[in-house]
Structures are given as structure tokens and as C-alpha cells.
């Protein structure tokens, strides 16, 4: 199997190549972080970073293993517009009171 071959895990008769394949090349997210976070319970092994108004990295199962990049909403009417949360919103970050 070479890089151009993809396995079909879909229904019989489906396309052998996934939508958007092979995807974006690997790369770094923005280093302009606005926040970091994790779950409240210590047994949870999920961490995340915030930047440009979106969750831009999710780390699981280890803090040194990013597995999601740019987790955001896309808003569209399906025909005339598409707004990407990272590019088309005006995010604000505040420190909450303790």
C-alpha cells in the first residue's frame, strides 16, 4: 500500500477515498495562546489551548500529544455565505474573579 491508497471503511459501493482526502498537511497552530485548560477532575486526561477565539489544540491522552487542531464553528446558510469562527468573529478574553 502506498500513500495514494486509502482503505474503504464505508458502506458497500462507497467511495474508496474519504471526503477531503488526504487532508491538510501537518503543521503548527498559532503560538499566540490566550488560555489553557483541562477538566476539573484529576482522572481526566484532556488538555486544550485557546487562541483567536477558538479551541486550537486538544491534547489526549497525554499533555505532549496533540490530536485536534482548530476546533471551531462554521456558520453558513448553505448557499450564499460561510463564516469561520476564527476569522469572522471578535473574541474577547477575560480573567474571571476567584
What share of the residues lie within helices? under 10%
Order of helices and strands: EEEEEEH
Total helix count?
Answer: 1
Give the overall pLDDT as a whole number.
78
Biggest sheet record: 4 strands, antiparallel
Roughly how many Å is the radius of gyration?
18 Å
N- and C-termini, Cα separation: 55 Å
**Proportion of strand residues:** 25-35%
- Shape category: globular
Uncertain spans: 1-8
Q: Quickly give the structural class.
A: mainly beta
Strand order of the largest sheet: 1-2-3-4
Strand segment count: 6
In words, what does this structure look like?
The protein has 98 residues and is mainly β. The chain has a domain of 54 residues. It has a four-stranded antiparallel beta sheet, with no helix packed on it. A hairpin with an 8-residue loop joins β1 and β2. The chain is globular. The N terminus is likely disordered.
